[in-house]
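idk why but the lab printer keeps eating my pages so im just putting this in chat instead. protein + 1,3-dihydroxyacetonephosphate:
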Amino acid sequence: MNRQKIVAGNWKMNTTLAQANELVTKIVSHACGFNQVKAIIFPPFPFITEVKKMIGDEKTISVGAQNCHTHSSGAYTGEVSAGMLHSVGCQYVLIGHSERRNYFKEKNSDLVLKIKEVLANKLQPILCVGETFEERKAENHFKVIIEQLTSVLSQFSITEFSQFIIAYEPVWAIGTGETASNEQAQEIHAFIRSIITDIYDSAIANNISILYGGSCNAQNAKELFQCPDIDGGLIGGASLKADDFCQIIGSF
Ligand code: 13P
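predcted complex ->
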């Protein structure tokens, strides 16, 4: 089994250009220690080109976008297409982050359209899934994950799916300081792999990277990353501190 280990930093709506510069410069200076781990930075749209330039030839670090539109071009004021992202050197797009599902009412059917655009432009989607606190309390978390995954994956062939990365982000753990326990995270990651096996096959299920997100930090990353089905992290708050982010990358 040789899954790509990934640590992705989702900056959300944070940083100025000057702060982005400082952060990336520090991360790049640590990159020689990243070994086999791929680091992906998801800055806000306006800084993508600049961040890409700052990374330069550093192969261990890639740039992604936090979102894209469902259409390729046209009269959609304020929106950004996957083709635009490809043209500025993005390689990844976050799809279906819980903040987009919640605040912007993105439905699974929207995510399918976005991923079609992402793949058509030779980018890789990081599909985010995860249950809310209420859903876990009601013991509906497995049902929610099945629904979120099958409604999207059923629309893609195995060849298309081979480009996916999955992120499990329990909503109750995002930005709360309340990380899922290793057991809780491992249980869902293994469950996600079993769903992928059911939809496609076990070979692809064993090859797909599944990241954990939700209050993952420099203190708890090591234990989480030791779980057999956790292939890395999608980091929010801690990705805004270069030292913490690099320490997380060094946690495998
Ligand atoms: P935090 O690491 O701040 O909890 O955010 C996780 C997240 O939403 C990453 O996409």
